[in-house]
Amino acid sequence: FVENGTGILATISNKIAENKINITKIESKNHTQDEAIIDLSFYVQNKQQLDDFCNKLRALSIVHSIIRGNN
Hints:
Oligomer: single chain
Strand order of the largest sheet: 1-3-2
Structural class: alpha+beta
Shape: globular
Mean pLDDT: 91
Number of helices: 2
Order of helices and strands: EHEEH
Largest sheet: 3 strands, antiparallel
């Protein structure tokens, strides 16, 4: 879940690019007036890269929570 507002997808996409992660899917939808859901699929080299990236996303003030799934 992320804050719902202008530039949110750009902020998330830039963080992904900074970490040299390859996006395979990105989708967003409104959850409430103040919150949105961003569904991401991407490739990482290993679990450490995934953990580091998730920690960097959590550090963004716009990110409310991260739910990890396996595809």
